[in-house]
User: Fold Hemerythrin family non-heme iron protein from Campylobacter coli.
Amino acid sequence: MSKWLSKHILSHDVMIIAWVNENLKKDENKALELNDLPPKQTLTQEENFEFIYSCPCKIDHRLSFKEHESITNEGKVMRCKKCQELLFFIRSQEKTYKG
Assistant:
């Protein structure tokens, strides 16, 4: 009886491993499909936001996505026009349109 039980458990373990591997492959394929989306879709979503920066004189500076991206990715430095100090990131928020 114990030999039969061992074979039974082993066969189920093999089926479970096959099922897990199949689902992992499906998840990898889904992730690859999501990575293949054109970058413009994420860009248009980001363009709906404005990025709030501040400086020591406590003025809120509203920057566009492109300006924010150049600061974060390219290391661009932006300064306040009034106090000439570096701007630092506070938050991002959805753009509000006055109509």
Q: What stands out?
A: The helical segments are 2-35, 39-46, 65-74. The CA atoms of residues 29 and 35 lie 10 Å apart. The chain is about 55% helix and 15% strand. The chain has two domains: 1-36, 46-94.
